[in-house]
Amino acid sequence: MKGTSGSGPSSTPPRPSRACPATPPPTPPAWSSPDRPVVDYVPLAKNDESVVTQYVMTTLEELGLLKMDFLGLRNLTILDDTVRLVQKSRPGFSLADIPDNDPAVFQMLSEGRTSGVFQMESAGMTGVCVGLKPQNIEDITAIIALYRPGPMDSIPRFIACKHNPDKVKYKHPMLEPILSVTYGCIVYQEQVIEIFRRLAGYTLGQADMVRRAMSKKKVKDIERERQAFVYGDAGRAIAGCIANGVPEDVAKDIYDEIYAFANYAFNKAHAVAYAIVCYQTAWFKCHYTKEYMAALLTSVLDSSEKVAEYIAECRDCGIHLLPPTSMSRRPTSPCPASTSASAWWPSREWAGALSTLCWLSGAGEGPLSPSLISASGCSTRS
Fold first, then answer.
1. What is the distance of C-alpha 186 from the center of its chain?
2. pLDDT of residue 169
3. 141, 278 in Cβ contact below 8 A?
4. I need a labelling partner for 26 at 20 to 30 A (CA). Which of 116, 215, 288, 354 fits?
């Protein structure tokens, strides 16, 4: 017998070993074709009036679906309504006419007069504004990015370095052009990417993959990248910090700081967009207070709490609010065409803003109690 049983030696010569072919990158399953309705391969459900998926986002991505986030801001409508009201006295006015870095606007924010200003209304944000005393949109951008769990710990250092440039320190001179705009503090995801690129020689794509690994706390990937950041990785053509003249201990220290902060680092592009809206709302409140407060009040008619808050702010700004009135007694300056009968009107001839019968119980949208007027201590001239 020549190896006919499972226990005996086989006469078949061993096959020569061959390298396994590289595994191709995963592709979306054939059944997740864009030509097929999504209901065929993703369970759906109703959330109020919206159709939603029952899979988490990572599973949806594995199925080849594209996930996008869309954010709607009530403040954009407020800005549009304010522009329409301003156009009553300044025909042709647009948001593009708002000047950059108006000192009066930053003085208002530095004094803590932030009620009604996008992103700056909370007590915490107001306190940061008073402490930091922003002088440009870049400062507002940093405030928005820093006032979140994690980065908030850097706020005292950020404020101290802004007011005393001698306190700004860089672990290596190569960091100065990257961090000077934030007074030596790592604030934005884009700064993390740029540190990897300039100090260690990563490509932008490689650096962004590290940022993603850090934000998702993938420990194995993070530790592997520590070695590449400090010593380099020839396989990926990464030179490393030491090869670029950064001492080993300094490189390790920089990586530790990046890792500690990258979990919470904010996207600057997002923060800048918010900062611009913040500045525009602040500019209108500073220079066209009646028009802005009218648009602001219109936007919160379904919230008695916010209406009361903004009525009190009108009082603090010296604006008198008129009581509910009949349709025949509206001011000669009508509200914008886009607003409904429940809007508030700024009235220069009456030196105040006018509300309609929506305050009366059961009338208009968002019925509010007329007692809000007297409770807020505002004028109620007839």
1. 17
2. 92
3. no
4. 215
For residues 158 and 185, the answer to whether their CB atoms sit within 8 Å is yes
pLDDT of the residue at 16: 43
Q: Where are the alpha helices (DSSP H) in the chain?
A: 57-62, 74-86, 103-110, 123-132, 137-146, 155-163, 176-179, 189-200, 204-215, 219-231, 248-262, 268-287, 289-299, 304-316, 371-375
Interatomic CA distance for residues 172 and 153, integer angstroms: 22
Q: Terminus-to-terminus CA distance in the chain, angstroms?
A: 116
Burial 265-274 (b: 16+ CB within 10 A, else e): bbebeebbeb
Q: List pLDDT tens digits, range 233-288.
A: 999 999 999 999 999 999 999 999 888 776 677 889 999 999 999 999 999 999 99
- Kindly state the tokens that stand for 375: 């409770």
CA–CA dist 307, 325 (Å, integer):
18
Q: Which residues pair with 352 in a beta bridge?
A: 320, 347
Residue 374: its pLDDT value, please? 39
- How many CA atoms lie within 13 Å of 329's alpha carbon, on the beta-carbon side? 12
Cβ atoms < 10 Å from Cβ of 211: 19
**What is the model's pTM?**
0.73
Residues of the chain with pLDDT under 50: 1-26, 326-344, 346-382
Angle at alpha carbon of residue 336, lines to 334 and 338, rounded to 5°: 140
